[in-house]
Amino acid sequence: MARSGPLSGEAGLTPAEAADVALAPSAVGPRPRRLLPLASFLLLVALWALVATLAQAPRTFPGPLAVLDAALRELLAGELLHHLGATLARVAASFAIAMTVGSAIGILMGRSALADEFGRPWLLLALNMPALVTIVLCYVWIGLIEAAAVTAVALNKIPNVAVTVREGAKALDRGLLEMAQAFAVPRGRVLAHLVLPQLAPYLLGAARSGLALVWKIVLVVELLGRPNGVGFQIHTAFQLFDVATILAYALAFVAIVQLVEWGALEPLARRLDRWRR
Length: 277
Known about the structure:
By secondary structure, this protein is mainly α. The protein has helices at 15-23, 30-55, 64-76, 79-111, 113-128, 131-142, 146-170, 174-182, 187-225, 230-239, 243-272. The chain has one domain: MetI-like (MetI-like fold, Orthogonal Bundle), CATH 1.10.3720.10. It contains 11 helices and no strands. Helix 10 runs antiparallel to helix 11 (243-272).
């Protein structure tokens, strides 16, 4: 008769299962896991400082302290917050338009074979159109105004959102939809309780990739035709070969986007994923 031990009898495991648990590699605790991103970031900064020291080119390859000094200088002068605010406003407007229009197109194409066949050539054209061409055409046709900048960025992101959401709409559980139709469930409840929970991973994927893409395109828009924003400041610093200021503005906006990811997108993803448990 097998002898019960702390890993078998007390936990309700068989001796074979207890042996597997004993031989399994120990999992990393929750506290060390939370510290891994910080350790990785500190390692990156240390490597950056080391390479900058070896390069001995403070103007073209500044170290972390030089970039921090440039950021503080711009912050105290009031320039950093002003230009970050202008870029954030364009990113928010373009992102909202792209997600709304792109999601609607994606759902339509995913649920209708006719719409999918009709819209596929348009989608392929939009996906392969260079962002620079779209920006220039918007400035030529609309003018060097804010509406042209936001339109250009949104047009570059809409097809990516549509493609992602279309795949999610095609993957919807037809059985659940047919059951809802058989029981005459109102369309609003079907959308809220059946469609959107299944589309949530695709919408979040489109949002995460879209946020990264939109702000990069916004920089090009600002560089070409706006009198303010991070892209405008980077262009000005480039003309002066001021690499520290270029990195200061770029990293400041990257930090903001990362805060949005941690503070909004990740909690939203956990909340929307509850229905699977």
